[in-house]
Amino acid sequence: MSDLDVLCIGNAIVDIIARCEDSFLIENDITKAAMNLIDADRAELLYSRMGPAIEASGGSAGNTAAGVASFGGKAAFFGKVADDHLGGIYRHDIRSQGVVFGTEALKDYPPTARSMIFVTPDGERSMNTYLGACVELGPEDVEADIVAAAKVSYFEGYLWDPPRAKEAIVLCAKIAHENGREMSMTLSDPFCVDRYRDEFLELMRGGAVDIVFANEHEAISLYQTASLETAVDLLAQDCSLAVITRGENGSIVARKEERIIIPAIEINELVDTTGAGDLYAAGFLYGYTNGRTLEDCGHLGSLAAGLVIQQIGPRPMLSLRQAAIDRGLSDGASTDARDRA
């Protein structure tokens, strides 16, 4: 297989997105601005209480893969769906966006994963996720030729919940590094960090993971410190490259002693923060795997994140490649040499 830019590995989830008031979250015991894992019965209950909703393929790493493809990059995805209605929707959506996706579908129970996402007036999203078929992703789903072909393999911290997925990630890291490739992860959620802090740190310190994406809350949670500066310094010490997003305050790219501050783009209206971190990672990794400077990578990430929060849903509705060209972030070709000294 010819080179791929980014392989994304994660939970293949169909998002069901609806607006609600903060009082709805309180009444239904939903933790705001977090990802809450739920069982099938809870999923049915929340679905029955939702208002008008939009169904869209999602999942953190799947969103990143779609973002890379929208920039014009070559992306692939590993994730498990069932051979059911929602699984068909997911396969169609991600392939139609130009992402290579060949993971074999489950023939029987459990069904394709779904996440009920409630968006409050401030744009925050509260996710309630039934993992379904996602828990069946395992080492047998790793396509070694795709891992070897990808310049960077990227996985979501959420994937650490299904136990067999850990084996798949470890196998991917082994294949990637044997082929001179890099491994990347996103910490995903402060609650996810709380569950797997020691394991995440071991992945970084043991060399399984080279590049880490986190928002400021996740970074602080990882090191159990009140200081963002301390968390950034420790992240840069524990991995080769760290990227910390800060919402409207932009982002920080940290490598060894180097710190690059990237501003957020100006937006017209905050509509829905779903997918902001996923699309930032897409822009950054697209730039990184196409020879752009770290500063350029940060600006591409900021652009993608800023655009996606002005729409409902986590997948870009307009061409990110064209948006980058329009803003002078790309001339339609990758010409910059990546500074990796």
Report how far the terminal alpha carbons are from each other: 28 Å
Based on helices, strands and strand pairing, what is the structural class? alpha/beta
Helix content: 25-40%
Mean pLDDT: 93
Lateral arrangement of strands in the main beta sheet = 6-5-1-9-10-11-12-13-14
Count of runs of 4 or more consecutive helical residues: 12
Beta-strand fraction estimate: 15-25%
Helix and strand pattern: EEHEHEHEHEEEHEHEHEHHEEEHHH
Main beta-sheet strand count, sense and barrel state = 9 strands, mixed
Count of DSSP strands: 14
Sequence stretches where pLDDT stays below 50 over 5 or more residues: 334-341
Query: Which geometry do the CA atoms define?
Result: globular
Radius of gyration (CA) equals: 18 Å
Describe the structure in your own words.
It is a single chain. With 341 residues, the protein is an alpha/beta fold. The protein is built from twelve helices and 14 strands. It has helices at residues 22-27, 40-49, 60-70, 85-96, 144-149, 163-178, 190-205, 216-223, 228-238, 276-289, 294-308, 320-326; strands at residues 4-9, 13-19, 35-37, 54-58, 75-78, 100-101, 113-119, 125-130, 150-156, 182-186, 211-215, 241-245, 251-255, 258-262. A nine-stranded mixed β-sheet has the order 6-5-1-9-10-11-12-13-14, with helices on both faces. The chain has a five-stranded mixed β-sheet with strand order 3-8-7-2-4. Strand 9, helix 6 (163-178) and strand 10 form a beta-alpha-beta unit. Helix 3 (60-70) packs across helix 10 (276-289), helix 8 packs across helix 9 (228-238) and helix 10 packs antiparallel against helix 11. The protein is globular, with a radius of gyration of 18 Å. It starts with a strand and ends in a 15-residue tail after the last helix. Mean pLDDT is 93; it is low at 334-341.
